[in-house]
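agent: user wants the structure for FMN-binding protein from Streptomyces ardesiacus. delegating to structure tool.
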Amino acid sequence: MRKSHPVRRAVLAGAATVSAIVLLLSLKPASGPGSAPAAGGAAPPVAAQSPQGGRDAGASTVTGDAVRTQYGPVQVRLTVSGGRITGAEAVQAPKGGQSDRVTADAVPKLNRAAVAAGSADIDAVSGATYTSAGYRQSLQSALDKAAAPAGSGSGSESESGPGRGTQVLTGDAVRTQYGPVQVRVTVSGGRITGVEALQTPKGGRSDRITGEAVPKLERAAVAAGSADIDAVSGATYTSAGYRQSLQSALDRAGG
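agent: tool returned. relaying tokens verbatim.
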């Protein structure tokens, strides 16, 4: 009987020691590895958020008018920061059939051109005449909206002039030997800032002639600031109808 007591005490002491070790091990991870991921997981979003917020602070987003073209509407949205175009995207563009391919090729080029030029004075993309024309007009309307609320110290205010907003005027539909021609003009601050052909001769050879002539007539109208522009070689009737419709639109602006 006397020998059994020391053994029992040794067993109990060993069990108590094991229990203490298990308890210590179970408490230790609570303040170690478990808390490290929580702290590490919270830090990255905060670090990533602050620079992003700094970039957006001085930028504004402006959406231009939706411009109807022969193949569907075109609408441009701009990001403007510090008075400069920092981003451009087409919110709407012609789609379906061949338009999908043309749009996919043309729109990225127009976006890059708008950012590079910092204005709507960009060249049409070859093979995307109507989309390019609609893009330029929507782009210009977005720029006009961006300039409108700017303070009196803004250099862009002189383009629209105090109290002189932007007008979009549609000229008469002029009948020609190959079909009607009708022009819509955007006038800002007394200047032509955009021109779009709403109707032009189409079908057969007319499609090719119109595709070549209309962009040239548009650029000439904006550059001249009037309907006093030269006819495009090989498109005599279209040019004459274009000038006549353009003049009728400008007459409405003057009235």
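agent: one observation worth passing along. The beta strands are 59-63, 67-69, 72-81, 84-92, 166-170, 174-176, 179-188, 191-199.
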